[in-house]
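Before the break, one more example. Copy the sequence into your notebook; we will annotate it together after we see the structure.
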Amino acid sequence: MLSAALGLFGQSAWAACTYPTKIDIPNGATATQEEMIEGQKAVKQYMADMNTFLDCIEAESKATMAEDEASEAKAEREAILSKRHNAAVDEMETVAANFNDAVRAYKARQE
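Here is what the structure looks like once it is written out:
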């Protein structure tokens, strides 16, 4: 029972990394210049927030490696942190690609 309680406490500690809220990308085919500029600012802030999240995941991963717990539990926590990291990187790439598509659509309208 004590082991389960400690496991729950440890889990809440490593779950403290806050995943940023997903942003809306402007529609380049219809957006105004101001909307595109605001979209660019939002993307930059989102990327900065995601990098903060990734730093947190890395710190939690290092803390996991330093903790004295059963190797099975440690391996499970490390796998979860790795999945969270990979999902965040994938989402960052998707947001960047979507914004680049919007910029191309916006520029095509300007020609």
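Helices lie at 2-14, 33-66, 71-110. Confidence is low (pLDDT under 50) at residues 1-14. Try to locate both features in your own notes.
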